[in-house]
Amino acid sequence: MYASREDIGYDFGDDSKVGSKPIKPNPNIDGGWAWMIVFSSFLVHILIMGSQMALGILNMEWLEEFNQSRGLTAWVSSLSMGITLIVGPFIGLFISMCGCRMTAIIGGILNALGWILSAYASNVHYLFLTFGVTAGIGSGMVYLPAVVMVGQYFQKRRALAQGLSTTGTGFGAFLMTALLKYLCTEFGWRNAMFIQGAISLNLCVCGALMRPLSPKDLSEKSPVRSDSEENQEKALSHSTETIKSNGVLSEEPEKKEEATNEEVLESVQHTETGGNSRSGRNMHGLRILKTVSQLTLTVRKGFALWYSSYFGAASLFTNRVFVAFIIWALFAYSSFVIPFIHLPEIVKQYNLSSQDNIFPLTSIIAIVHIFGKVILGIISDLPCISTWNVFLMANFTLVTCILTLPLMQTYVGLAVVCALIGFSSGYFSLMPVVTEDLVGTKNLANAYGIIICANGISALFGPPFAGWIYDITQKYDFSFYIAGLLYMVGIIFLLIQPCIQKKQPRQKSTEEAQV
């Protein structure tokens, strides 16, 4: 089963056609500072995604502390995971206006604040606001820039780079599980959250490492221009013109406003040379005015780019395979999250706590997850291998493991299934690559924001649904079966849509021949 990029079916054209002029590549693309971006993204995945994968430890503490139902308590973890991903499209707007670096630094401060405030929680509903919403939004503001920056800095080894950076999720799940267990045992869960909040301030350092590429560097990243990119740019320019006519963005007033600011500033500078103290005050005021004006223009341009991506003539939703990708994401992520949240409780029910304490099942998933991301990334970068096919095979393996897990009631059986879950879930490193192949580098931030938003909805409702099913049946079996079946529906959408896309041109040619 081999599917090239043409088989996936782009709406904007065929990416395989070679363009005209090669451009000298930038040394920072696929090398140099690009590896610092990978390191920064790796740390972000440890501190954000790794911490969220270890929330099963805190979930048990919250159950004992607040004495609420499993379904209600699971909403705390689900809100944090879900909101981290759901805010993706809106974080894309922040990135368009402020850039990845500033967005990530602000997000790091907000995430740390959420952890620290949660240490003073008096009930579960307080945690909904502080940990679920505040820390969740902060996590989203760091996570999306970390993924987007790796996509911008790499061209030839994108899958490997994304694989290496996202292995931080596996390392983080292993390290944070052990750390939170130790902190909760030694200091209690409240102090553990306070300490974790202090550790999360390192996200600001990760954001500072995200040095932006200049527009020239971004253009040099794609030395070979394809017809699809040209068509997409035309469509985007057309949508921008539509926006201008609707009053969202007007280019001529911007130029006039900038020119006016420059003329006034030069005249005041000339007056200032005369030694007038009043002109100095005028100069200071006009500097402030010019800064505010430039900031306003930046916001308007960023909003126009964000608006055109979602609602313009070149809307991402006109790409049918991308829409199928969104539907898949709505069902997929909960199947991966549910085991992390509820496995500690399942182990406790099966009286396997003594064995699990020696080597936790969640740690097995985390460790194998690391190798899965790297190995799948290396395989996908091979010239004879389709990234799309590797992505699909990993999904089939994962859904099979989810459906099989309730049948295992021994530690060895659960460990084997958890290892397979960890390896097959390594396809997460391929998601940005597949997304970029579908929509292009320029739309990666907005497109991937939509994908992780769909994942967030899945993560938001998955664990509470599993807890609610347990409260009714006193078993987790049906939770895994239902999640696995919904996951299979999403995979079927991925399989059907490329076939439809591939058949459409043939139908058109047949009709033309009849005419």
Automatic annotation (TrEMBL):
One of its GO terms (cellular component) is membrane. It is found in: Membrane. Coiled coil: none annotated. GO terms for molecular function: monocarboxylic acid transmembrane transporter activity. It is a multi-pass membrane protein. Its main location: membrane. Residues 217-236 have a biased composition (Basic and acidic residues). Residues 237-248, 268-280 have a biased composition (Polar residues). The chain crosses the membrane at residues 33-55, 75-95, 102-120, 126-148, 321-343, 358-376, 388-408, 414-435, 447-466, 478-496. Residues 37-502 form the Major facilitator superfamily (MFS) profile domain. Residues 216-281 are annotated as: Disordered. InterPro entries: MFS (IPR011701), MFS_dom (IPR020846), MFS_trans_sf (IPR036259), Proton-linked_MCT (IPR050327). Keywords: Membrane, Transmembrane, Transmembrane helix. This is MOT14 protein. It comes from Xiphorhynchus elegans (elegant woodcreeper). The gene is Slc16a14.
